[in-house]
Each structure stands twice: as structure tokens, then as C-alpha cells.
């Protein structure tokens, strides 16, 4: 066997044993089931054996690991609120962490069926009408007039009630819309600040880490360059190429993360009231959302 091929195979095996697999360049993924304000579990599919966490700012609502088949189902620790956005983070060793946001839908309870009550009412009406007809056989016009007046009164009352309810619905919806306009920019700012906070808390890669992978990269690049194209098989060339790409990806990924961490740390250091601003916005946003919830509950009750 070509000496370069032996070098490539040895380097690749060493990388795999050390936990540096090709999967390092892969990204995690997730497909959650729809979440509503009445959900008690967060379910879905994700990268096999990945860790999933549902959170909002500093609070974790659910977390756990996906199965070997990529399925997950975790019980929620706290109630979800309609209209709120929650962060879904998926991580796995050797994979790029994936973050996305899910917005919670409102779970309106269906209106109760009134068919049995209506049927009973109709039956009672028929009986009353029959009795009235029998009793007032000598005054059919009086019966008709009374019935007509009752129907008119009932119709008028229904119209007034319907109009009043719709007026309340419109007023509540208007208040909710106004509050949502106020809270949206606050949520956006909090999301940005939360990302900065998380990036700032990441550990920087050590000089030894860079020195080790730079040395490994030099070895696999030299081994690849020494391959004899006339004797090396396509698989030998593929392994050599992947060994080089894996080392490059590890170094570039570390450099990118370190750059994000340093930038985030600098942002916080240059903003003395950064954490106070974050906490104040969090309280203000929570207050708006509490008001929205209260109004939404009132709106649901009318529906």
C-alpha cells in the first residue's frame, strides 16, 4: 500500500477515535407538532438522540433527548401562552446547534351543542300552542296576535344581545391589537439581547485546541499531496479529501464561534446597563403579555 495512503488512514482513524467525526459539519434539525395554549406536552421529530429544549428567555418549559428513532415527547413544566414566541434549541455533540422559534396558537374551546335544548324547547312550544288553541277556540285572532308579539319581543331581545356581544368583541380585539403592537418590538429586542447573552457565555477554544488541529491539518494535507494518482484508488482520494475537509471545518467552526463570543462579550462590556436593560424589557414585555392573556380569556368567554 502507498505510504501516503497509510498516513491518511492512520490520521482518519485517529480523528474518529478522538471523537472528531465527519458529523461535525452536520446540522441538527427539528419538526415540532403544533403547540397551543392548552398543550401539556411538546412533541415532534428531531435529529436522532439530540437534546431538545423549549424556553423563553430565562425559563425552560420542557427539555429532554430525542429517541434513537428521532421522536420526542416531553411534559411541559409551565403553561404556554397564546401569541407568545418560544425558543426551540436542538443540540448534539459533533453537530451544529440549531435554534428556531415557535409561536403558540390560541386553543379556543368549541361552542356546546344546543340541539337537545332546542328540541326540548320546541316540544314545549308545540304543547303550549296546542293548549292555547284548545282554550281559545273562540278567539283565534287573539292567539295569533299574542304569538306574533312574543316572537317579535324574542327577536328584538336577541338582536340587542348579539349587537352588545359583538361590540364587546370588537373592543377587546382592539385592545389586544394595540398591546401586540407595543410588545412586538420589545420581544424582538429581547430575542436579540438573549442571543448576545448566550454567545457571551460560551467558552473560548483554547490555544492547545487550535495547535492540535492545525498540526493534524498539516499532516492530512501532506498525506493527500503525496498520493500518487496513478496508484491511489478513488476511495483513497476520497478519504484523503474528507480528512482534510474535516480538520478545516473544525478549525473554521471554532474560529466562527470564538468570533461570535468575543463580539458578544465586547457588546456587553461596552454597555454597562446591558443586563438591567434586558431585565427591564423582560418585565415590561411580560406585563404586556399578561394583559393580552387576560383580554384573550375574556374574548374566548364571549365566543
Quick description:
With 303 residues, the protein is α+β, with helices and mostly antiparallel strands. It has six helices and seven strands; from the N terminus they run H-E-E-E-E-E-E-E-H-H-H-H-H.
What does this structure look like?
This protein is α+β, with helices and mostly antiparallel strands and 303 residues long. Helices cover 60% and strands 13% of the residues. The protein has six helices and seven strands; from the N terminus they run αβββββββααααα. It has helices spanning 3-17, 115-135, 140-200, 207-225, 234-269, 274-302; strands spanning 30-32, 41-46, 51-56, 59-65, 71-75, 85-91, 98-103. The strands form two sheets. It has a four-stranded antiparallel beta sheet with strand order 4-3-6-7, with no helix packed on it.
Question: What would the keywords be for this entry?
Answer:
single chain; 303 residues; alpha+beta; four-stranded antiparallel beta sheet; three-stranded antiparallel beta sheet; 6 helices; 7 strands; 60% helix; 13% strand; elongated; disordered N terminus
Overall mean confidence score, pLDDT: 77
* Number of separate strands: 7
The radius of gyration over CA amounts to: 33 Å
Distance from N terminus to C terminus (CA atoms, Å) equals: 78 Å
- Total count of helical runs of at least 4 residues: 6
Q: What does the overall shape look like?
A: elongated
Low-confidence residue ranges:
1-25, 109-143
Order of helices and strands: HEEEEEEEHHHHH
The assigned structural class equals alpha+beta
Side-by-side strand order of the widest sheet: 4-3-6-7
Question: Strand percentage, roughly?
Answer: 5-15%
Main β-sheet, in a few words?
A: 4 strands, antiparallel
**What share of the residues lie within helices?**
55-70%
Amino acid at each position: 500500500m502507498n505510504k501516503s495512503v497509510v498516513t491518511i488512514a492512520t490520521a482518519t482513524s485517529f480523528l474518529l477515535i478522538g471523537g472528531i467525526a465527519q458529523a461535525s459539519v452536520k446540522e441538527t434539525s427539528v419538526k415540532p407538532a403544533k403547540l397551543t395554549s392548552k398543550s401539556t406536552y411538546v412533541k415532534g421529530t428531531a435529529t436522532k438522540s439530540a437534546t431538545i429544549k423549549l424556553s423563553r428567555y430565562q425559563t425552560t418549559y420542557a427539555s429532554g433527548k430525542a429517541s434513537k428513532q428521532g421522536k420526542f415527547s416531553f411534559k411541559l413544566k409551565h403553561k404556554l401562552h397564546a401569541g407568545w414566541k418560544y425558543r426551540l434549541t436542538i443540540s448534539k455533540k459533533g453537530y451544529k446547534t440549531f435554534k428556531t422559534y415557535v409561536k403558540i396558537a390560541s386553543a379556543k374551546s368549541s361552542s356546546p351543542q344546543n340541539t337537545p335544548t332546542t328540541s326540548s324547547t320546541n316540544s314545549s312550544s308545540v304543547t303550549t300552542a296546542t293548549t292555547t288553541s284548545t282554550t281559545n277556540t273562540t278567539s283565534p285572532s287573539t292567539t295569533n296576535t299574542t304569538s306574533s308579539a312574543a316572537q317579535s319581543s324574542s327577536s328584538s331581545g336577541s338582536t340587542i344581545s348579539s349587537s352588545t356581544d359583538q361590540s364587546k368583541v370588537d373592543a377587546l380585539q382592539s385592545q389586544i391589537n394595540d398591546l401586540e403592537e407595543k410588545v412586538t418590538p420589545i420581544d424582538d429586542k429581547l430575542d436579540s439581547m438573549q442571543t448576545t447573552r448566550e454567545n457571551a457565555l460560551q467558552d473560548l477554544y483554547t490555544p492547545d485546541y487550535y495547535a492540535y488541529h492545525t498540526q493534524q491539518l498539516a499532516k492530512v494535507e501532506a498525506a493527500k499531496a503525496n498520493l500518487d494518482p496513478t496508484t491511489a484508488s478513488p476511495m483513497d482520494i476520497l478519504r484523503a479529501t474528507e480528512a482534510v475537509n474535516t480538520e478545516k471545518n473544525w478549525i473554521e467552526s471554532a474560529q466562527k464561534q470564538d468570533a461570535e463570543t468575543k463580539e458578544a462579550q465586547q457588546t456587553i462590556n461596552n454597555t454597562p446597563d446591558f443586563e438591567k436593560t434586558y431585565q427591564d424589557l423582560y418585565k415590561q414585555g411580560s406585563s404586556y403579555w399578561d394583559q393580552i392573556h387576560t383580554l384573550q380569556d375574556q374574548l374566548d368567554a364571549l365566543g
